[in-house]
Amino acid sequence: PELGSGAALVDExxxxxxxxxxxxxxxxxxREEPGDVGLAHEQIESELHARHEVAVETYVKTVNVExxxxxxxxxxxxLPAALQYQKDVADSVKATRDAGASTREAKRVLDRIAGxxxxxxxxxxxxxxxxxHHAPSVEKHATFMRNTVVPAMExxxxxxxxxxxxxxxxx
Length: 171
Hints:
Layout: H1 15-31, H2 41-98, H3 104-130, H4 138-166
């Protein structure tokens, strides 16, 4: 697909890959520019490389901050609320059983929230561990963020959304 200005759209779902594609595209366009553009080929390559490095570093830092915030929110807000709700449901199951009534549906809710809590905790730990990664270059770190950290963030978000649907807002 083309934009109105004549620049081609980059078909890349993540910023790290998009900056690489745009770097290649921009370099190709500048090299094909007719006449004297005022910059030597080496200067163009150097400038594009510097811009690319800044863009990739920004991507890595942004994903890192967002992932750290997700872990913090998971541990400080979502998990405690989910555990409180699990305790409330467990207390309800016990009280219902002690009163001699059926607890089948309440136990299903308890099993569901307990399973989600386990999944949420596992996802939180996986994301937290992924954030300890260090790479020898910014490009390799960006690739790791795209291939490992972003999917871990998505998994944590999905489970967190499921928990949010179960846990009352008052908790």
